[in-house]
């Protein structure tokens, strides 16, 4: 395309809606003001459009919206010095709420103006997807992003734009070229199309990624020859993005340290390569810190549009990172926070897990409160030390569930002290729950293993000092430091939004204290659970001789003990890095319902005790009658 033709297209892409003060006819008025081309289009039945263009910028707007315009080529200024404004008559071909399609009378030029609204731009992109005219539409698609950035960078449109842009790139690659390689340069991206040399004996063909504005070297690429040997496709396109914000819309807690490079082979889905694709990225900057690490990742166009590491290995050396990947897609080097797995959760899974947690915590809080109330009003329940421990654990769980259900609400309040209070309460009740789980295990050990000589003076008082006091000391020490508790933003892997909650803000404190504390409790409880389970099955073996020990009762007892001791919280150890969703769902379901399990356990225990009491009374009555 000639430079003059490009200038005309760019000029005509600058139309803006000027307001409802147009005349009764459709006209376009063109003029040149201080090196700025301006076109004002008056429509009889819709707001006017104004388009202005300089060498650096092109604008299209109206009194209501920004807009996008493109026209087929026509030299309106041939044989004229353009010192006076020109007026052209227009003929409307089609119009709706967002789009007007018109022709300029007595010329072969046809134009379209689309308001920068999601519906109109999505419709325009899909129309171009079905009918593309290369190479003009490559420029037009990039202009859509330039003139309607806010619309393109919305979650409702960005996936459509990326798909249409990819198809346009494929069409450019498929164009006939005489050279072995050909470069294409645009404002937002640069592309190199290479014909693969299949006569080479090497396993890889070296290609330098095309440079972009103000960047001398982007990356060196080693393309494996393997996928081209079948002869179906012999051309490959390497794209370097200078404007790559549309790939970053759904990224949080990750910083891009390199340019985004797209590698495309039209008509082929290149994956599971035996000889991996190798890209040596030159980094924009490095940040040596234990809180971040460099990671080779690709943009998952077939998934949810997120960045992930599947099929890619990272080798970091100095200011160069080598990525080895078994497929061909958009790639980049990301600086990823080491903050834990929760930030890899997608928005959809976050919502589902939130519903599960809130329902489970609501039920657990209700039954935990019922357990405490039944203990208060039942003298028989208070007589048992075991019940006192169960109720203390239920009280801790009630406080934990109640404060958990308030963490998102409190984060929305303007009084930040409320958020700090909820975060402190949540952390304290969590540590109390862990501590009382350990006490449950200790008490069980004393009952079933050390049957004799277990009298301890002020036993319950001492247990209460441990169960409620140790967490208070830990939380009190953390509270004395500044900014430990407060609003924490939880980022999701596939959206540009964050969820604010009231919790521990420092990740080192969050996972250093909690994981270390729970690990000690978990190992202690697991050891006692194994010991007690062995004792139970020994008793079953003895009882089987008399046919009195059903297996299901023993299994139910072990499961009940697992709930009492919080063994199910150990599922967290099976999740690391990118979250294991089945484990996370089990974790939320089982642990949010722990208060309910304890209520059922106490009801079953009380029923068993009543049955034993009645049996003892009936036996005593029979002995007396004899």
Would you give an account of this structure?
The structure is a single chain. The chain is an alpha+beta fold. The protein is built from 15 helices and 24 strands. The protein has three domains: 171 residues, no CATH class; 161 residues, Chondroitinase Ac, Chain A, domain 3 (Sandwich), CATH 2.60.220.50; 225 residues, Rhodopsin 7-helix transmembrane proteins (Rhopdopsin 7-helix transmembrane proteins), CATH 1.20.1070. The strands form four sheets. Strands 1, 2, 3, 4, 5, 6, 7, 8 and 9 form a nine-stranded antiparallel sheet that branches. Strands 10, 11, 14, 15, 16, 18, 19 and 22 form an eight-stranded antiparallel sheet that branches. The protein has a five-stranded antiparallel sheet with strand order 12-13-17-21-20, with no helix packed on it. Helix 3 packs antiparallel against helix 5 and helix 8 runs antiparallel to helix 15. The chain is elongated, with a radius of gyration of 35 Å. The protein starts with a helix and ends with a helix. The N terminus and C terminus are likely disordered.
| Unreliable residue runs | 1-24, 76-80, 619-626
Helix proportion of residues, in percent? Answer: 40-55%
Tell me the β content.
Answer: 15-25%
CATH architecture of the largest domain: Up-down Bundle
- Most strands sheet: 9 strands, antiparallel
């Amino acid at each position: 395309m000639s430079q003059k033709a490009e200038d005309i297209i760019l000029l005509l892409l600058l139309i803006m809606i000027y307001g409802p003060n147009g005349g009764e006819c459709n006209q376009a008025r063109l003029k040149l003001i201080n090196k700025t081309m301006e076109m004002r289009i008056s429509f009889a039945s819709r707001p006017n459009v104004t388009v202005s263009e300089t060498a650096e910028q092109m604008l299209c707007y109206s009194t209501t919206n920004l807009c996008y315009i493109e026209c087929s080529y026509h030299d309106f200024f041939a044989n004229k010095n353009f010192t006076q404004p020109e007026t052209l008559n227009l003929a409307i071909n089609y119009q709706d709420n967002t789009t007007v399609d018109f022709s300029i009378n007595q010329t072969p030029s046809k134009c379209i103006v689309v308001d920068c609204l999601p519906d109109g731009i999505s419709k325009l992109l899909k129309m171009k997807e079905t009918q593309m005219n290369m190479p003009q539409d490559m420029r037009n698609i990039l202009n859509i992003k330039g003139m309607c950035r806010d619309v393109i960078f919305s979650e409702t449109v960005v996936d459509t734009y990326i798909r249409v842009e990819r198809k346009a790139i494929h069409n450019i690659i498929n164009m006939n070229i005489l050279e072995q390689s050909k470069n294409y340069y645009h404002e937002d991206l640069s592309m190199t199309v290479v014909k693969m040399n299949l006569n080479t004996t090497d396993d890889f063909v070296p290609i330098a990624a095309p440079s972009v504005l103000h960047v001398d070297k982007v990356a060196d690429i080693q393309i494996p020859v393997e996928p081209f040997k079948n002869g179906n496709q012999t051309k490959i396109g390497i794209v370097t993005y200078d404007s790559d914000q549309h790939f970053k819309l759904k990224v949080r807690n990750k910083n891009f340290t390199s340019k985004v490079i797209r590698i495309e082979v039209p008509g082929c889905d290149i994956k599971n390569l035996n000889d991996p694709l190798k890209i040596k990225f030159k980094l924009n900057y490095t940040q040596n810190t234990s809180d971040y690490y460099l990671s080779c990742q690709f943009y998952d166009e077939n998934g949810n549009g997120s960045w992930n590491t599947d099929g890619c290995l990272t080798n970091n050396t100095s200011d160069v990172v080598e990525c080895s990947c078994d497929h061909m897609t958009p790639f980049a080097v990301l600086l990823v926070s080491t903050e834990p797995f929760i930030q890899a959760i997608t928005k959809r899974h976050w919502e589902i897990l939130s519903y599960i947690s809130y329902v489970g915590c609501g039920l657990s809080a209700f039954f935990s409160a019922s357990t405490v109330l039944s203990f208060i009003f039942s003298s028989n329940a208070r007589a048992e030390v075991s019940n006192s421990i169960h109720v203390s654990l239920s009280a801790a769980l009630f406080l934990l569930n109640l404060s958990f259900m308030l963490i998102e609400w409190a984060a929305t309040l303007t009084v930040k002290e409320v958020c700090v209070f909820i975060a402190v309460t949540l952390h304290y009740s969590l540590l109390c729950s862990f501590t009382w789980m350990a006490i449950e295990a200790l008490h069980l050990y004393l009952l079933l293993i050390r049957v004799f000589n277990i009298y301890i003076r002020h036993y319950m008082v001492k247990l209460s000092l441990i169960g409620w006091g140790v967490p208070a000391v830990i939380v009190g020490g953390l509270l004395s430091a500044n900014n430990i508790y407060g609003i924490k933003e939880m980022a999701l892997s596939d959206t540009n939004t964050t969820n604010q909650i009231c919790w521990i803000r420092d990740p080192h404190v969050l996972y250093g204290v909690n994981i270390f504390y729970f690990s000690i409790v978990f190992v202690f409880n697991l050891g006692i659970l194994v010991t007690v389970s062995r004792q139970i099955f020994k008793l079953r073996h003895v009882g089987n001789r008399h046919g009195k020990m059903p297996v299901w009762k023993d299994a139910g007892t072990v499961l009940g003990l697992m709930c009492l001791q919080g063994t199910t919280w150990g599922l967290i150890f099976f999740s690391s890095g990118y979250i294991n969703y089945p484990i996370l769902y089990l974790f939320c379901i089982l642990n949010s319902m722990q208060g309910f399990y304890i209520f059922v356990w106490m009801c079953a225990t009380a029923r068993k005790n009543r049955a034993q009491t009645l049996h003892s009374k009936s036996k005593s009555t029979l002995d007396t009658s004899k």
